[in-house]
Amino acid sequence: MSSAQNPHSELVGALYRDHRGWLLAWLRRNVACPSRAEDLSQDTFIRLLGRDELREPREPRAFLVAIAKGLLFDYFRRAALEQAYLCELMLLPESEHPSPEQQQLILEDLKAIDRLLGKLSSKARAAFLYNRLDGLGHAQIAQRLGVSVPRVRQYLAQGIRQCYIALYGEPQ
Fold first, then answer.
1. pLDDT of 1 above 60
2. How many C-beta atoms surround the C-beta of residue 126 within 10 A?
3. Most confident of the following: 31-35, 52-56, 72-76
4. In order of start, what are the domains of the chain with their CATH numbers?
5. Using CA atoms, how far apart are residues 95 and 55, in angstroms rounded to an integer?
6. Distance (Å) of CA 15 to CA 20, 52, 93, 129
7. 2 vs 7, 8, 10, 18, 117, CA distance in Å?
8. What angle is formed at CA 161 by the lines to CA 139 and CA 132, rounded to 5 degrees?
9. CA angle 138-139-142, nearest 5°?
10. Number of C-alpha atoms within 13 angstroms, CB side, residue 154?
11. I want to staple 140 with a disulfide (CB 3.0 to 4.6 A). Which of 48, 79, 85, 136 is the partner?
12. Half-sphere exposure in the Cβ direction for 120 (13 Å, CA)
């Protein structure tokens, strides 16, 4: 991507040049897999290139670590999701196991749903999952989350909106 296409490329290039080695060392201390640390380092800078607005940070290393921590959290959450799926799969009789190809497609769908719901606040995400997966009503969800029933309706609307966006794109 040229700097004409991305006005941040010079700043990101400077951050990459000056701090990538340090960030990679930090990630290697926090992730057991060196190749995963490498990927997360690259993803950190890719995330910066994708921003609409980017200013030079006063504390570049703290700034990069904050982004990397978010990516690390996402990675661990997706790994836990995959592990939960595999554990549930083990509970099924072997004759009902999906094929390896189907398992991979299911995992990709679960990760896409996780990314979609990751855009919601924790309470909105919990309300949506309580409603859609557990079949709880508005009053039950409100009680569990310690919020009002109208707030639960707002949370559910946010979840449905994210599903709409995933299927059809941003409403015009």
1. no
2. 17
3. 31-35
4. 1-107 (no CATH), 119-172 (1.10.10.10)
5. 56
6. 7, 17, 52, 39
7. 9, 10, 10, 20, 33
8. 45
9. 85
10. 8
11. 136
12. 24
Tokens of 124: 């909105």
What tens digit of pLDDT does each residue of 9-49 get?
A: 888 999 999 999 999 999 999 888 899 999 999 999 998 88
Interval 110-121: pLDDT, tens: 888 778 888 888
Kindly report, residue by residue over 120-163, the tens digit of the pLDDT. 888 998 899 889 888 899 999 999 999 999 999 999 999 988 88
**Residues in CB range of 140: below 8 A, 6 or more apart:** 130
Residues 6 or more apart whose CB falls under 8 angstroms from that of 28 comprise 34, 37
What pLDDT shows up at residue 118?
A: 80
Distances (CA, A) of 40 to 23, 46, 110: 9, 10, 21
DSSP secondary structure code for residue 94 in this structure:
G
